[in-house]
Amino acid sequence: MGHLIGIDAGTTALKAGVFDADGTTLSVATEEYRIVTPSSDRAELDPERYWEALVGATRRALEQAGVQPAGIEAISVSSQGETVTPVAADGTPLGPSIVWLDNRARAEATELASLFDVTAVYAATGVPEVNPTWPACKILWWRRHEPELFAQAARFLLVEDLLLHRLTGRFVSEGGVLSTTLLYDIRSGGWWPPMLDALGLTPGRLPDIAAPGAVVGLLRHQAAEALGLQPGVRVVAGGMDQGAGAVGVGNVAPGMVSESTGGALTLQASIERSDGDRTRRTPVYVHSAPGQYLYCPVCPTGGMVLTWFRDQFAATELSRAAAEGLDAYDLLTALAATVPAGAEGLTMLPHLAGAFSPEYEPRARGVWSGFTLAHGKGHFVRAILEAVAYMLRRNLELLADAGSPADVIRSHGGGARSDLWCQIKADVTGRPVVTLMGEHSAIRGNAMLAGVAAGAFADLGEACAAMVVPNRRFEPIPSTHAAYEAGYQRYLELFDTLRPSFAGHGPGHG
User: Fold this and answer.
1) How many helical (H) and strand (E) elements, i.e. helices and strands, does the chain have?
2) Is the pLDDT confidence value at 134 over 50?
3) The pTM is what?
4) Which residue segments constitute the domains of the chain, with CATH numbers given?
């Protein structure tokens, strides 16, 4: 049996990994891209950057692994959700991709919300509320504000769809990444006609639909040449990055909760039914694991807040890291480690691109509260780490209300590299946090799906046994409980107090 490639196109970077048939990671390569933000409510990217990143990362991963082109059996691709691109009949993009963080379509979201009963929306799509994140709202924005582009667009594609088209020549998607479009019916596995009618869309202007984990085509000659591979390799639709990441940490059946702190903070809980949450507050996705659904609360800015702080306020740490071959994140968290639990009263709201689960307030903004002359850089870093942990606790409470409580949390994503952050999460939530060997869960999940599709594994259970290995376990420290309980209450009260003022942050406001 040959080798497998897993690819995940995230919000700020694309990762590609090469794995052998036993599931061993041979190499991982990353290509970053920078989102363009023309205003506080807009987030865009040249769609060609996704393909360029896939080519660059895949070529470097293959070179690092020392694998011959003929040795690749299958490629699986997952991506961020909600980012949407209009394309011509040959797949050429007609404009920039509107990234999922973009909130320009507020008026369109309000319009669509007025047309549909929220209970019906949740039952069909798994989406608790209509908000500007969803592609349906963005497509309506194009129709209202750029009617020529809307009319010219032959298809509207998500990032996974774009890459699958470049690889295979097919316009194809799958239920995992389509779950948060407002266009897809998670019950039937097809398009949701009432929403398509409201937008003036026909199914022909959207991709074909395959099952998550399915082989959707074979690598075509042009793509094979760009990647340095041979044509005919199986190409698999891996799903949304959250579903692929859940597979990559072994979260493929009910009874497990995982969290990922990458650019965003997300939680995942595998479930068997789409209608289990009687409160109708928890987002429901189609899982990358066959026959499963996924509760998936999302907070738009998780680790991205720490990245923003590093880029804006950590010139000293960045300079030292470059000079000494260190990681600026490690230098910042070392500062935070000198600050006691609770950051001595400094509290942050990490909503730099609006709040989503469970508050659903796209106008929310980042806030610092309670700092004095006694607070230094380490306090601000620690307050960021704690704020994300408070969001995690908030959403664990949401999952518990939906019938998926967590006894242990499996942690993945870039945030899992930080022992301090993992310990803070354990202390804030009162639950053990377990990390895994190999931090790249989404590309590992894609490799597992590719392995099943290529016959390297009989099913995902066998793939999990081979490829998912626990690493470290962080137990809650009882002595921090009082400080974090007080900090969590400050966090909740600060948001509740400021929520009415967020309504003033519409287009044109900072």
Assistant:
1) 18, 24
2) yes
3) 0.87
4) 3-245 (3.30.420.40), 302-399+411-431+482-501 (3.30.420.40)
